[in-house]
C-alpha cells in the first residue's frame, strides 16, 4: 500500500543578492574598456602578436557585459522577489531598489502591500434559520512569500474563497438579532463578531502565508423575501417589550402608593376599595392617552 504524503509547508528565508548600482558601474567600465580597445586597435597598426589578445578581449568583454546585464532586477517599496535556482527556492529578497543576482537565478516578484477586499453580498441562514444578506471588508497582505507562491496555486483566488467561507461560517453561527438581549447577535455585537471573523480568516489563510490586519461587516440585512415579515415581528416584539416594562413600572408604583397610604394611615381600604384603586391606577399609568378625571360625589357602594 502506498503511504499518503503530507503537505510540506514552505518557509520564507533571505536570499543572497547584491546592490545593482555597483554592478551597473562595473558594466559601464567594461563598456568603456571595450570601446577604448576598439578605438585603439583601429587607430594603430597592431602587430601579429597583439591580434590574438585583442580578439580575446573583444570577445570576452561583451560576454561579461551581457552576463552582468542579465542579472539586474528592480524591487519597488513593499515588494519582494523570490529567487529560484532550477525550480529550487533559494530565498526572498526584500531590499528595494536596483538589485543584482546571478543570471541563472529566476526572479518572481510578489507584492507585500496591504490589499483591501469587499466581498459580495452572500445569502446565509443565521442560527435561527432566517435567511440574511451579509458582506464584509477585509484588509490582508502577504506575510510569507514562500507560502504564498509555492503552497497554493493562486493565493489571491485562495483569499477570495476563504473570505466567502469564513463569512458564511460566522453568519450561520449567530442569530441576526435578539430582542431580549440575552445572546450574542450579528447586529448587536459588531466588535466581537469582527474579532472572531478576523481570527477565523487568519486561521484559514495561514496555509497561504496571508495575514489579515483588519476586517468588519459592511452589509447586514434580512433577505428581501422575509424582510417585511421580520420588520413586523421586530415592531411587535418592541411593542411587547415596551408594554412589559410599562406594566412592571405601573405595578411597582401602585404597590408603593398602597404601602404609603397604609403606613401613614391616610385612608383605610378594604379589599374592594383596594381593588378599585389598583384598577384606577393601572388604567392611568398604562393607558396610551391622558386620563380624564371623574369626580365621584357618592361612595363606592352607590
The CATH architecture classification of the largest domain is: 2-Layer Sandwich
What would the principal axes of the Cα set say about the shape? rod-shaped
Terminal Cα span: 102 Å
- The chain-level mean pLDDT equals 81
Name the structural class.
alpha+beta
Order of helices and strands: EHHEEEEEEEEHHHEHH
CATH class descriptor of the largest domain: Alpha Beta
Give the low-confidence spans. Answer: none
The number of distinct structural domains comes to 3
CATH topology of the largest domain: Tetrahydropterin Synthase, Chain A
Could you explain how this protein is built, in words?
There is one protein chain. By secondary structure, the protein is α+β, with helices and mostly antiparallel strands. The protein folds into 3 domains: 18-110, no CATH class; 115-222, Tetrahydropterin Synthase, Chain A; 227-286. It contains 7 helices and 10 strands. The chain has helices at 20-43, 50-69, 145-150, 155-173, 190-205, 224-263, 271-286, and strands at residues 18-19, 72-75, 79-85, 88-93, 97-100, 106-111, 115-118, 122-125, 131-142, 210-222. Strands 7, 8, 9 and 10 form a 4-stranded antiparallel β-sheet that branches. It has a 3-stranded antiparallel β-sheet with strand order 1-5-2. Helix 1 (20-43) runs antiparallel to helix 2 (50-69), helix 4 packs antiparallel against helix 5 (190-205) and helix 6 crosses helix 7. The mean pLDDT is 81.
Descriptive labels:
302 residues; alpha+beta; Tetrahydropterin Synthase, Chain A; three-stranded antiparallel beta sheet; membrane; Band_7/SPFH_dom_sf
Amino acid at each position: 500500500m502506498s503511504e499518503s504524503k503530507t503537505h510540506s509547508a514552505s518557509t520564507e528565508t533571505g536570499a543572497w543578492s547584491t546592490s545593482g548600482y555597483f554592478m551597473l558601474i562595473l558594466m559601464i567600465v567594461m563598456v568603456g574598456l571595450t570601446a577604448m580597445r576598439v578605438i585603439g586597435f583601429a587607430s594603430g597598426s597592431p602587430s601579429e602578436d597583439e591580434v590574438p589578445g585583442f580578439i580575446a578581449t573583444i570577445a570576452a568583454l561583451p560576454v561579461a557585459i551581457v552576463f552582468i546585464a542579465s542579472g539586474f532586477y528592480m524591487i519597488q517599496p513593499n515588494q519582494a522577489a523570490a529567487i529560484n535556482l532550477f525550480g529550487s527556492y533559494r530565498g526572498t529578497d526584500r531590499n528595494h531598489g536596483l538589485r543584482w543576482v546571478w543570471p541563472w537565478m529566476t526572479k518572481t516578484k510578489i507584492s507585500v502591500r496591504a490589499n483591501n477586499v469587499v466581498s459580495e453580498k452572500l445569502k446565509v441562514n443565521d442560527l435561527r434559520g432566517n435567511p440574511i444578506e451579509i458582506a464584509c471588508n477585509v484588509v490582508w497582505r502577504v506575510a510569507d512569500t514562500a507560502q504564498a507562491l509555492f503552497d497554493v496555486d493562486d493565493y489571491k483566488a485562495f483569499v477570495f474563497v476563504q473570505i466567502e467561507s469564513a463569512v458564511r461560517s460566522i453568519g450561520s453561527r449567530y442569530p441576526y438579532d435578539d430582542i431580549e438581549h440575552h445572546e450574542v447577535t450579528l447586529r448587536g455585537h459588531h466588535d466581537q463578531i469582527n474579532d472572531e471573523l478576523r481570527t477565523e480568516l487568519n486561521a484559514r489563510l495561514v496555509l497561504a502565508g496571508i495575514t489579515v490586519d483588519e476586517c468588519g461587516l459592511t452589509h447586514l440585512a434580512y433577505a428581501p423575501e422575509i424582510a417585511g415579515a421580520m420588520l413586523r415581528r421586530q415592531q411587535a416584539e418592541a411593542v411587547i417589550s415596551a408594554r412589559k416594562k410599562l406594566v412592571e413600572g405601573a405595578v411597582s408604583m401602585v404597590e408603593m402608593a398602597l404601602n404609603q397610604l397604609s403606613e401613614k394611615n391616610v385612608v383605610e381600604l378594604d379589599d374592594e376599595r383596594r381593588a378599585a384603586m389598583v384598577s384606577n391606577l393601572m388604567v392611568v399609568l398604562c393607558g396610551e392617552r391622558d386620563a380624564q378625571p371623574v369626580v365621584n360625589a357618592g361612595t363606592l357602594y352607590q
